[in-house]
Amino acid sequence: TFGGPINALINIPPIGSQVDENNGRGGNTGFLAYATREKVVGLICLPLDGDPSSSMGLIAHPGQISSVAVSGDGSLMFTAGGADLSVNIWNIETSGLAAAAAASRSRGVEPFIE
Fold it and tell me: Where are the WD repeats (predicted)?
């Protein structure tokens, strides 16, 4: 169930080699961080095409997630829990998700949305 509907969606700034020297931004792909109201945070590979291999989620807190933020350089995600009174710091590593999305596309899986 991925913890219910998404209630926070944050653009992750491109990191290092992802930056295109021509315009200072990533190419035509990038990543979004998301959080649901309870338990789950994750990453979504851009462009949004509906392919389930282009997203991942993990259980970050045992209950409510009260806040989520991404560092200015795009390397860390911060989550704050509700009743668990904890703040977690997560390293953002996009290579695995990017590889899964690319493998899905190479197997001939067509995007749902173009």
Answer: 58-100
Q: What strand order describes the sheet that includes 31-36?
A: 6-12, 31-36, 38-45, 55-70, 76-81, 87-91
- Residue 21, number of CB atoms within 10 A of its CB: 5
How long a stretch of residues is the chain?
114
Residue 3, helix vs strand vs coil: coil
Residue 1 domain-assigned (yes or no): no
Nearest alpha-carbon partner for 6 in 40, 52, 50: 40
In a domain, 50, yes or no: yes
| Phi/psi of residue 103, nearest 5 degrees | -65, -40
pLDDT tens-digit readout, 36-78: 999 999 999 998 888 888 999 999 999 999 999 999 999 999 9
Q: With respect to residue 112, please indicate whether it lies within any of the assigned structural domains.
A: no
